[in-house]
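FW: tagging you since you asked about this chain on Friday. Here's the raw sequence from the shared folder, copied in full. Didn't touch anything.
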Amino acid sequence: MLVSYNWLKEYVDISESPEVLAEMITRAGVEIGGISYPAQGISGVVVAEVLTCEPLADSDHLNLCQVSTGSGAPLQVVCGAPNVAAGQKVCFAQVGAVLPGNFKIKKAKLRGVDSNGMICSMQELGVDDALVAPADKDGIRVLPADAPLGEDALAYLGLNDAIFDLDLTPNRSDCLSVYNVAREVGALLERPVRPLDVAFSGQAASDEGIQVTLEAPELCHRYIGTRLLGVKAGRSPLWMEQRLQAAGMRPLGVLVDITNYVMLETGQPLHAFDEKDIAGREIIVRRAKDGEHIVSLDDVDRELTNDMLLICDRDRAVGIAGVMGGENTEIKDDTENIFLESAYFEPRNVRRTAQKLGLRTEASIRNEKGVSIKGVELAAQRAAALFERLAGAQVIAPAQDVYPVEQPDTIVPLRFARANALLGTDIPPETMVSYLTRLQFDLVEEGEEGIQVRVPDWRMDVTIEEDLIEEIARFYGYDEIPATLPYGSTNPGGLTEKQRLQEALGRHLVAAGLHEVLTYSFVAEDFADKLHMDPADQRREVIAIDNPLSAQLAVMRTSLVHSILEAVQVNRSHQVADVAIFERAKTYRAEGDLTGRQLATEEDHLVIALDGGSNRDWLGSRQAYDFFYLKGIIEQLFTRLDLAGLRWEACTDDPTWHPGRTARVYLNDTLLGLVGQVHPLVCQNYDLSEAVYCAELNLEPLYTLGVETPKAETPSRYPAVMRDLALVVPADLSHADISRTIRAAASSDLRDIVLFDRYTGDQVADGMASMAYSLAFQNKEQTLTDDRVEKDMAAILAACKDLGATIRE
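HL: got it, structure written out here
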């Protein structure tokens, strides 16, 4: 849930900074995962007026404009927006302004004409393209005529805001409402929360209304229908558009925006029907029929089942209850009268329906978690008030309110001694009462030993005494609860799947002759340059240390290769001839603003470095390290972990690595990392004159798979049948592709594939290569016959021909 700081200030007087407020809310048990600032890094953008606008000579799309900021002489600006015109108020980036991405506005010449600034679109002001209103999608943002010249455009647009990203637990669905978050803030700050303005001028209808019938009251506990006559389509005011965008929703026009705005504000989903499309002037809430269809608002034809709830008129379905409306009654630009739905649908039914249809919407998310049945009426009234003020609606009152069985208030007891015993505290009773009163729990009964409270209708998660104790604990402060030793029986500890994999990985690499090293998580700021990383490589976006130990430890590393190459260099400088080392450590990436509570993204990586050759064996032989030696270590590691699906693809486009001796490593379709020779120019940066082979693999995808205990397999008693296969293939066709094709075509009798020769030269055509394979066929149950093997060989040959291969004569 995204919540605007400025929107909260409409309901509560807040003087605390966004960072301080976020800390308070998080400490009270509603975690704020991060804060974003839409206007961060933007400056020098003001409200201006386009005085004149003429086509630029020798251009089919550029315009020459004269722009005034309200002071000083008009400025000449070249603008390519298709909707720019004289008389408009616009957002103008003056010379010296800074736009997102540290883009600085300077004087420029376009087609030989001076341009002194830029007229901005919403995208150029940092608004995500998916959130831009349709009218602003392909051009500049045209401001209202009364926009004051020279004013800070970001403030005028409401972009000088802070957006809280709430990481809500499932029980706190009440905080899917901005107003309920404001109630939480008011309780924390001990300040009053201003009530929602729901005043409107209701009028009696002189014509026939819309009749509402509940045929499935067990799935719809309350349904309020409000008629809104004479509405006028148009654009929403700036403040509403900004708040929708801050919450991650795109403005679509005032008739739709009001329903979305009230849903975000109150947490109650609404749906607006075009009244003229409701057949028979009747709304029927019923179960769907098996095989019934509806075209939803996303233009998808959906087949329904009997366990789903529908909103219908006399002839057809017009909406999927609690999930999405139907295309046949959607609001249009020419809509004059609206029938507004505000209802409480059975949460479990909404969740099952959304899952079956694969249709998860903002409305279904709230309905499936449960909304306040009393808040259904508040949301309907709030929407009616906004429709009257912003869309010129005549509100017909009273609204249809079908409420078959009124839900009683929730009364919960609290024993003071029980609360302190459970928390291990000594909180005075009057303090407990104060916490609950601030949260708008009404006292029903009060005594020396405890109280009974009426739970606010929006706090559906509070039903038992322990829930009240949790409310007391979070306002008292979890960090204020004293630490005590546990008592009672304990369970023996053990390793997690992640720890088991890490141990198995380390044991294998040590057994393969490698030594484990430990290096700093901090590296020099120029590490990416030493590794020749591409300028656009995201790993250049590092987290700087505020108070580094030295210039060589100034930033958090995003790759382990730099650290392991420095370790190789240190060994070489101490006359260590052969180096075979590895490290398992974390990399750190910044995703978003880290000034608040946003943390870096940490990933476990494995890095291996080989320099020189393997130790001499008892016969005195020594094998120089190369790509295939390192590839063998990786393959043995995955065999030891019993992880199938390892595959290799040649890599020629990473400047850190040798283009002819490097491969990308995949586990099935998941990229793990790179294995190969470090580029000689990179080695020079580390004073390494000989070839160094490295691997860096991301271990995070492996942690989800776990480590299987190796199982013994009984070997076949029957002999293997060997066949050789010589193919002439396109030279760019990889062994991996051929091997996969052979395995896919053969039966389970194919046990092994070995490539024993590859030849290019005079005896094969240009652009072709000869690939010779040895194939082993074996069955555990019987001796294979020639006919059975030849059948497999025929299938293999046919599949290879599809790759462009032929049999070498």
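FW: The mean pLDDT is 91.
HL: agreed, and The radius of gyration is 35 Å.
FW: great, closing this out.
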